[in-house]
Amino acid sequence: MAVEMSMPILVVDDYKTMIRIIRNLLTQIGFENIDEASDGTEAFEKMKKQKYGLVISDWNMEPMTGYELLQRVRADESTKSVPFIMVTAESKTENVIAAKKAGVNNYIVKPFNAGTLKAKMVAVIGDF
Q1: Are the beta carbons of 92 and 4 closer than 8 angstroms?
Q2: Are the CB atoms for 47 and 70 separated by under 8 Å?
Q3: Contact 23/112 with Cβ under 8 angstroms?
Q4: How far is CA 42 from CA 21, 29, 62, 70, 114, in A?
Q5: Would 112 disulfide with which of 5, 83, 98, 116, CB 3.0-4.6 Å?
Q6: H or E element: which one contains 46?
Q7: How far apart are CA 115 and CA 74, in angstroms?
Q8: What is the pLDDT of residues 17-75, one digit of tens each?
Q9: pTM for the complete prediction?
Q10: For 9-31, what is each residue's pLDDT tens digit?
């Protein structure tokens, strides 16, 4: 199945600069329907109101971390199948294992470029 380039993508990060960087990378690779949230709580509220084709979330945020968001998303019937990519500055093995166990689809370590983002997205949602 071909990836719909107009699918809505939710970018979750507490740093506006990082949201802007990810938004720019997504635009570079052809996606334009990009929504944002500044923490896991806001992201989950948005996910209850709108269906997203992909969530790209930072790990370290307050009050709800990306990991806690992932757990909430996977536990909820209406959101559990949404593809989820975790972004983090830390490549700790235990974090990667915890995220995998919680149901993350892929993992990106900062810093990254459009090529890396696209490769991770292709692995999760298919070629585009």
Answers
A1: no
A2: no
A3: no
A4: 20, 26, 11, 13, 26
A5: 116
A6: helix 40-49
A7: 27
A8: 999 999 999 999 999 999 999 999 999 999 999 999 999 999 999 999 999 999 999 99
A9: 0.96
A10: 999 999 999 999 999 999 999 99
